[in-house]
Predict the structure of Flagellar hook-associated protein 2.
Amino acid sequence: MSSLRIGGIASGLDTENIIKEMLKAQRSKIERKVQEKTILEWKRDDFRTVNTKLLALRTATFDLKLGDTFNAKKAASSNESILTATAKSTATPGTYDVRVKQVAQKATLTSQQSLGSKENVSSVAAQFGIEENTQIDFTLAGKNGEIPFSFTAGATSLADIVRIINDEDMGIRAYYDANVDRVFLMSTEFGENAAIKVKMDGMRDSGGNLLVNGEGKALSFLGDYLKLNIDMKSLNETAPASGRKITSNSALIIHDPAAITLSQMYEGGTAPASVSFTLKGEKDSKDFTFDTAISLQEMINQINNERLTTGLTASYDSSSGKVIFSSGGQVTISGDTDNFLRDKLNMTIGSQQGTLSSNTAVRVYDAANIKLNSLYTCEDLQFTLEGGLGSHKFSFNASSISATTVQDMIDSINLWRNTTGITASYDGASGKISLWDSCPLAALEAGSTATNATLDFNEALYSSSDGTPSGTLSALANGQDLTASFIYTGSGSLTSATYKSDGSIDFVAAGAADGDTIVLNGGGLDNLFDAEGNQYLPVSMTYDGTAGTWKYTSRSNDERMIAIRYDNEGFLADELNINMYEMKGSKAIIDFNDAQNLEFDTNEITLMDSINLNLQAANPSQTVRITVTNDIDGAIEKIEAFVEAYNTAIVYMNTELTERRYNARDKYGGSFPPLTAEQRKDMSEDEIKAWEEKAKSGMLRGDSILFTAYSSTRCAATDPVQGLASTNTYKSLASIGISTPTFVRGSIEGGKLEIDEDKLRAALEADPDKVMELFTLDKVITNEEGKEILDWNGNPLRNRGIAIRLYEAVNENITTITEKAGLPSAKIDNSLLTKEIGRIDDRIKSYEERMQEMSERYWKQFAAMEKMVNYYNSMSNWLSQQVAQMAGQNQQQ
């Protein structure tokens, strides 16, 4: 209904003001209820403020419940540029010596120079000037996973690559800094377990061919374009002295146990006819004997056939290559007379609850017994290896994979050794494959002439029965004549070639002319090898007629390398567990007192479960002294914080309890009731503020709930503590220098605590344990017979320290006040005051509805009156017209 009303048109009455006066009594009822509601809201707010003070006090009191507050220790480092230190409360005061030999580092790969990026960085092709259809392949792996990248240069940007690495959360963070035009890769963790692994890095043209630089070396995106410090050439510690070597990180995982026979786990010809052992699960034990000709899957099946007897089941985890024995109770293995379980299934003999499994993957000793399809199932397997001599792509299609063994693959790699310089091998004991740039180095001794030259290999030489490392190696004998094994081409001739035990060959020639050559070419000598089976490439010497000397061209260490340029199914990385390159983090290494070379995967170290070190820098030559002392200042700070929170709460509660109302004569506030909306219209902001300060006064004066909270808090804090140790002279706060000032009548400061810091410090220094007991005692009260004394609820009575009983008292008061006034943050408030406010709201709503009904009725009544007045006015006008008309007619007559 419209609020616009116009009255009095006919009657001339001020209808609106008349009705307003008629509703004044009803409106007054509403205003009084609104004032009543406002007072309750003010009271509720004051209670909630009390709770805020008590909550702060409870928080400060909690610190004093903790023994660590009084037994706190602090640690100081004599050189904080090397390490900083903190100490727990359990630390023993004293001095400790530390040498930081090495700080823990994250694994990092960083662009070694500016990338030379172009202005357009919308794609890798645009940024680096690469053909858009160039295929880029690389795989990065961190602690938590790996990402194989394969994309065309025109379809992906460097920003995309960085984002994908970071989104994957694989333990590597990537950054591209456009200001310095460099890429940064960093592991998320420290230590040797943190690593950045590069499993593949290559680039191909649209036809799938490797892209090469001007020297014929394969191009790589990470190394050549992002210029990351990926080292594929340095000799690693597991390599032979003359070559780089990379080896599987773990044994090959054969996913199908049906593809493994028990005999294949032994070195050729050493397998026993059968193996025996005893298994016991949650039921009985059972002796088993198995023919070694059966498969691992058959053995597992036979064990499971007896599970009703043993209460044990066997299984094979194809993802880890481990055998698992499981039971609802203990799993026990014994009677392993052939050591099959221990040595071949790699199990720990004994008992274990629930499950007992292989510690490492089951291994097949001979690579010729491992089919590629038992390691991985794919239709087309391709990978490209690059060594110091060059690269080669190896391919196995679906039909050949099922028939090809790991040994076949190794033989294929070795067949191309003279092209790549890479040799592959398999170690049956560890179940790992190795790749190494196998061509050893040789040098021509100085002083060669046209007639004499000595080629020095610096190690004993061997020949092979079939010209490969897998053949039988035979050591060359001192003085052995090798003349027939070399071919001389040119106008001269080879007189003799003699092997010497120091690893050199003496050549004697006659009539040498410029360009003449001497090459190794069979003659009973099938290539040259070192003791580890690493092959020397065919020897070739050339005579330089101008210099008058023989020359031998040999590769340098800088040319030795192993790189994986392509791996379409991730076979080398995931199934052979080979990483092309791995950058590891480093451990922190310290000496601590007499303990030497302690290692940690972090720079934040805890020693003796009480001293925390934060390593900043390594300095093995300097000893840093850590001094641990009692932290008296820390205890005093927490006690001061407690006293401040206590005083704030006590003074506020005392103020609320004693504050008087201004001229209060009734429950609505007497001379200063809450202002109505109409009253506010005629007052300034300052006048409203001054009025409400007086109107809000004394809301909680004499309130019983508040008085209980005030008195219980004071008593809990200041009463002497009972039940302390007989030797403890600290019975109250006053005994340690915390007391109440002299009482001043009418002062709201009554009950506050004051600290004598000198006395408090002296108590903490003299006996912190006794001060701690004063605050933290919590002991059941017993009678002379040692029995617990119970309260009327049957709960043991307890002697409690100041912090314990004060914390409980404050908690109880907070609960009581919350029941009365609720919490401002509560979604549902069922407090007493809120309910009472709700009831008043309902009454106000009822009054407002009644006033609306009265207003509607009055308006209708006045409207009816106006209608009648208008009617009578019309009648009066008509009669006047009739009279006037009649008068006019009479005059005419």
In short: Residues 30-66+634-821 form one domain. The first helix runs from residue 15 to 22. Confidence is low (pLDDT under 50) at residues 237-241. The chain has six domains: 15-24+832-892, 30-66+634-821, 73-104+587-630, 106-230, 257-362, 446-554.
